[in-house]
């Protein structure tokens, strides 16, 4: 990994912070072309858009494929604040992005989020997805994991105490649980404060 990679990876952490500040999950992505120019940034929008596929990488790639031809994308590097999930890895493959650099690894992310029902782990490394394809994608990561984890500090709570993200039903931040989490808490009385 080069110093340029480090700088752009840190830029993806800043985009993740912006997503968090806007009430979404703390994930971000940056697309850089072969000359080192930033083409696009993408942040997670799952909560504010109420869209389960609103991952940072997927949001970025939807826009990228509308704006740029496949040859341009093949020369690009996608910088992601965390290892892309299988869905996003598939999108990276199909969009023909040539290189991926990511911060927080999937297993480290799972250690941070726990079994939180809003972000259930689907533990498959992006390299496992890419290995099934016929086109090679250069992958660097995990990298700068300690820095990558900082944007998640205080965001994810153990499932037993409820999530720290916005209450979508009322549109405010705080301890109130979104609808899906309230349903989960109903099946787990200790999470709802109704037992031990």
How would you characterize the overall build of this protein?
It is a single chain. With 196 residues, this protein is α/β, with parallel strands linked by helices. The protein has eight helices and five strands. A five-stranded mixed sheet has the order 2-1-3-4-5, sandwiched between helices. Strand 3 (77-82), helix 4 (86-95) and strand 4 (99-104) form a beta-alpha-beta unit. Helix 2 runs parallel beside helix 4. It is globular, with a radius of gyration of 17 Å.
Largest sheet: 5 strands, mixed
**Distance between the amino and carboxyl termini:** 48 Å
Give the structural class.
Answer: alpha/beta
Strand percentage: 5-15%
Q: Please tally the helical runs, counting DSSP H or I stretches of 4 or more residues.
A: 8
The shape, in one word, is: globular
Q: SSE order, as H and E?
A: HEEHHEHEHHEHH
**Percent helix range:** 25-40%
The averaged pLDDT comes out at 84
Strand order of the largest sheet: 2-1-3-4-5
Q: How many strands appear in the DSSP assignment? A: 5
Oligomer: single chain
User: Radius of gyration over alpha carbons?
Assistant: 17 Å
Q: Which stretches of 5+ consecutive residues score pLDDT under 50? A: 159-196
Outline:
By secondary structure, this protein is α/β, with parallel strands linked by helices. It has helices spanning 3-21, 56-67, 70-74, 86-95, 106-113, 126-131, 145-150, 179-187, and strands at residues 28-32, 38-43, 77-82, 99-104, 138-140.
């Amino acid at each position: 990994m080069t110093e340029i990679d480090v700088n752009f990876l840190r830029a993806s952490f800043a985009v993740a912070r912006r997503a968090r500040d806007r009430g979404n999950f703390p994930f971000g992505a940056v697309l850089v072309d072969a000359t080192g120019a930033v083409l696009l940034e993408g942040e997670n929008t799952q909560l504010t858009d109420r869209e389960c596929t609103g991952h940072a990488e997927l949001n970025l790639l939807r826009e990228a494929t509308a704006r740029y031809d496949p040859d341009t994308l093949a020369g690009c590097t996608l910088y992601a604040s965390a290892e892309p999930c299988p869905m996003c890895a598939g999108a990276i493959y199909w969009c023909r992005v040539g290189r991926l650099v990511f911060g927080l690894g999937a297993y480290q992310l799972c250690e941070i989020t726990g079994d939180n029902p809003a972000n259930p782990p689907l533990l498959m490394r992006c390299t496992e997805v890419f290995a099934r394809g016929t086109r090679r994608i250069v992958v660097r990561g995990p990298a700068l994991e300690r820095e990558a984890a900082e944007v998640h500090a205080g965001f994810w709570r153990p499932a037993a105490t409820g999530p720290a993200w916005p209450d979508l039903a009322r549109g405010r931040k705080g301890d109130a649980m979104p609808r899906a989490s309230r349903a989960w808490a109903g099946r787990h009385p200790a999470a709802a404060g109704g037992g031990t």
